[in-house]
Amino acid sequence: MSRHSYTGRDGIPRVDIGWDRPLGTYFVQVFHVENGEEVAFLWEGAEHGQITEAAAAVKIAAQYAELPPSLTATLEIDRLRTSAQTDGPAQAAAKRRRFYDPGDGSNGR
């Protein structure tokens, strides 16, 4: 997993963007301050395979923060660096329960 953090615009304290190998998705989290704590008010890429292109994640994050021009390439490199990794036993079991276990017909949700 990778995570890159940027200061947001218009009072947004933080924008995080990265690659989540276990979920096979890029993600974007945008935070605001609530009761003195940073809380994500936008979280895209929290579902398996939701954002499959780095440029799509950058497009979302760019609405909230100034990002370096090289970020799309950096994210793609992050993804490639993890392509040979496999899930450990606990991670594989969690993914089976979340995404593939037909036990109650809800597909883990």
Keywords:
alpha+beta, 28% helix, four-stranded antiparallel β-sheet, 109 residues, 26% strand
Secondary-structure topology with pairs:
Layout: E1 4-6, E2 14-20, E3 25-34, E4 37-44, H1 54-61, H2 71-81, H3 89-100
Antiparallel strand pairs: 1-2, 2-3, 3-4
Helix pairs in contact: 1-2
Please tell me about this protein's structure.
By secondary structure, this protein is of the alpha+beta class. Helix content is 28%, strand content 26%. It has helices spanning 54-61, 71-81, 89-100, and strands at residues 4-6, 14-20, 25-34, 37-44. It has a 4-stranded antiparallel sheet with strand order 1-2-3-4. The longest helix has 12 residues, at 89-100. The protein is globular. The mean pLDDT is 89.
